[in-house]
Amino acid sequence: MSLPVRVGTLAIAFLAVVGGVIFVVIHYLLASPPTVDYSAGVTPDHGQTVNVVLQEDPQTTIGNRPDWVSYFIQDPKTHAWVHTTLFKVPAGSMIHMTVLGYDGCTPARNPFWGKVTGTVGNVEYVNGKSTRVLDTWKNCSVGHTFSIPGIGLSVPMASPTTVKENNNLCATSPCTSGPKATITFTFKSPTSTGDYFWHCRIPCGGGFIDGFGGPMQTIGYMTGQMEVVS
Amino acid sequence: MAIETEPGTTQQPSGHDPVAAPKTRAWWRRPAWHTGLIGAVIGYAFGHWLGNYWAVPTATSPAIYQQIPSNDMNDYAIVLGYAFMVLGWLGGLGFFNDLFAQMLGRTPRDYQLRDGGDTGLARYFRMTHDHKVVGIQYLVGMIIYFCTAGLLAMGIRAELLSPVHHVFSSGVYIEIVGEHGTMMMMLMTSVILGPFGNYLIPLMIGSKRVAYPRLEALSFWLTPAAFLVLLSAILLGGFHMGWTGYPTLSIQDTSGADAYAFAFGLMGLSMILAAFNILITVICYRAPGMRWGRLPMFVWGILGTAVMMALAAPILVGGMYMIITDRTVQTAFFADRLGGSTYLYQDLFWFFGHPEVYILALPGFAIVCELLPVFTRKPLFGYKVAAAGMIGVTLLSFFVWQHHLFDSGINPDMRPLFMLTTELISIPTGFIFLVGMGTLWKAKIRLTVPMLFCLAFFFNFLIGGISGVFLSDVPADTTEHGSFFVMAHFHYTIMGGLIFAFMAGCYYWLPKMLGIKLDERLGKAHFWLMFIAFNSTFLPLFAVGLAGQPRRVFEYARNLTTLNDWVSISSFFLGASILIFVINFVWSTVIVRERATGNPWNSRGLEWQTASPPPAENFAAVPIVLTGPYEYGVSGSPPVADMSPPVGLLAAGLSETETARAEA
Amino acid sequence: MAAQTPAESPAAAEGPGVPEPNHAIRIGSVWLLLSLVADLLIWFAAGPHLPPGTAGSQADGQQFDIKVMAVMAAPVMIFVLVYFLYSLVVWRGREDDEEDGPPIHGHARIQTAWITVTSVIVLCLFGFGTYELYNSYGAGAGEGPAPIYKPTGAELTTAQQVAPWSPGKPVVVQVIGQQWRFTYRYPQFGGFETTFLAVPQNQWVQFDVTSIDVIHSFWAYQLGVKADANPGVDNIAYTKPTKLGSITVRCGELCGLWHGAMYDYGQVMTQSKFLAWTKATNAHFADITPLLPPYASTYDPTVVPLFRFGKVMKALGLTSAGGGYYPPNDPAQP
Questions:
Q1: What range does the domain containing A61 cover?
Q2: pTM to 2 decimals?
Q3: For chain B, which terminal residue's Cβ has fewer other Cβ atoms within 10 angstroms, N or C?
């Protein structure tokens, strides 16, 4: 092949490789669910209260994982449910969290996580009633947990408690109707900024052995990050 | 085929007319990578359908194997898809053509072309019986694989610039770590055996061919399949258990883990085939006079590597197979609750895994022992010691694997035993240093680019090897295991050893393989940047590990940020040095093409006594080897071989021997 | 090929009448000096600051081991480096010199000496390492369920471990690895579980490390302990904390998405403070401790005793904790 042909082929090949790498990096490696911003308009480090609303669903009918359980987060401005587990809160504020628990009950692998830790007063309010401990083995009372290990927060998420309710769980997502338990609790966001990961400690969803596969380990489903900003 | 008689042509399958001129067809009508791709697509589609048919219940029929309802987490479809994809890929490349043709009693098509009658660029893109073409295919492939895995390493170091600000999400980071590690550990096993072993061993032993050219070609064409299957894990969501793939994490993982297990097993197959070919070629195809005591040290090293590959890789394939069955058909090899054990996998994996790292280290030894005499103009010091070192490492590598499991809860009686064997293996490893230092004694050192890389090899492997001794001590290993100390150790031995030796081999042998010299100034720039950046990257990691940073973490102690930043910036320079190499390689071979025929290094090696690049049959006549390849400075030494022995000399000599035997 | 004695190459001499310098003595003297300096620096200057520090008996032992090995490794490394640098300076070929070097194929005495010296060094290191392993009761490494190096009074059965603690007995801490947090159970103090690791000073501590899902590794850096947490296996390691202060616990084996964030901080306390802490913690967790499974050396988290399950759970067909191996139809036991 003559020199100009060789140079031309080399240039095209080089551009193709660079383009391919950039495409893979942007599309597959850097892609991430959106972050819901609860910090807008709130002055950090002033102890102001921020209301964060989540729900956990037994199925995810949007997206390509129909059998996976998932959390959804409500956008504070539009009140629409966003399929993500990333949210932003201001530092040094009181985070008042409301979780709508639409998913049914599952016994925990370690019943220790039935205890509420890290909240104000070490309590949570299940359908308005104050609770310190939920027995995940005896009663059909807990579906998941919301745990932020970095600040010692772990709150069991109550579930619908009767047989009838558990057999008629909400089948679409995000859920707007169906049996649910309403959980509220308050905790203080840390003063040092950064990303604090949170996850659920009660695995469910068939087919992922030893529990923590699939949605339990996928950002946007049962695990995510709380970004503390100042 | 007897070596004693001069072969007329190299390959003569039955029924084939050796005299008729080969008929050529257009390149797109002959099986090559494009037909291979078509076969792969068809194969994947079929396999995927078959997996869904077996596993997914439909409205009208239950599944044959009960499986969770389908989403794209259907492991059966993915694994079967890959399996049939590989079959389709190989079929499309034409690996089954000869088999079916001969079974049907027909003459295989294009046989002579594949034996070395092919010319032009297209022959590098198809299945060939010419070991030299396979060597070049491997060379280009290995550079591509190395650079891809290197880019992933750049991603890892970018993430580790800060413990609080993250470039990638945690899941993607672990994916990248696993991809980098697996790609390097599985593909770099053949980074020297593939290109240089396959290309040079027949030339070094005076043979016109390898023993199993089809197996050799197959071993190459499995590597792009393994590479692409491994990369496709990213499309499937990645695998999150690192290159070691410990269960139960690997059983728990999403579909990317199927890609990991399948790719690794496939590469294991490639290793076994490549190893068999090398072993039989060296044992059976040596030219007359090429005694074991005259075998080039490079061949000894590759021989040891091949023995380890042939014996260890089957264990890997078995372990990966068990991971796949645990993930699909519900076996419980690795589930302690159901009668299996996670220790089973750890032992299987590391029984392969430890010889694996010596498969990665030994070719480096082989190359430096081969190159040092050329650039010191002296015989190799202690030939027998060097060979004993290669053999010692090969044998002992199978007896040390439990040092990866010192803290795992293995039977505590085992730990002093494996501490002993691991310490002992440093003795044959040390022989290489004795040989290197002895060869340098009173030498006339020529600091060419290949020699610079060889010297850097010794520096790097010294640090890597001594840190290995620290790791073999069980008490010290308690803190060092699973930390960045181990990372620094194996990067020093594998990258500092193997890859530096690979670079030396490239600069040294490219004139032989392509008849083209790489640019010397760019080569020196490449060397110095790579050497300084490499040490700057990995030396601090010993301290980072001892300070308590575990491997595979995206968050680390804040007080280690400065060290990590230093390492990350250095690694970007290291990447830049590899870029310089790639630019030099591509520029010299594609654009400039400065001819370098003949023997530019003035080497006494047998491979240099034929043209550069060698003709299709390597040698016009099978040479008779007269001395070893390292007889520099020996006054009155004959040339290394008689390249054109008189016709009938061997036959006459043989008949004399037979007569003598008859008379005795 | 017979080894030949080194021949003096006539080309090596600088000129007529200039004798060949004794390279061996030059290299040897530089090596000796540098090694002495390096060894003294390592032993006295760097030694007390070497990782992993001296906060625990095992850490102390490991620091000593690393110091000894560094002192042995330094002369080896310096020898090789000095030799290489010397040869690059002294024996570098001149640009126009096309001659070959002297034909030295080998030297039987040097080869034998090298093999002997390296073998002796290596065997000494083996002996030293084994002695340290024995002398330190396991060097902080996980020894599995049947440790052979253990302090007197080691408690290996569940019955021993739930008996209340008295001074002189090792304090038993069960480390439970789960995705992605370690929890610690103290069977001798009421069997409560906590996420905070507290250990008493100057007291043997026995860590029983297990996992309830995948493989983790309990790495308490300042204590010098590393033991893999395997599901279904009780991995035992020993240490004796000696200095008060904070402990960093990190997971040392890749265990999934948040492995990198699986770390916490514990504390070495005085004995009296430790006992007070156990009392307070026991009271704090008094509501959850009765709900935990009875203390055992390993746990099968999917097996829940039927008497614990309420009516609703049974009616829903839930018979085990979430994440069975192949739900809903695990293969039957063989």
A1: 35-229
A2: 0.93
A3: C
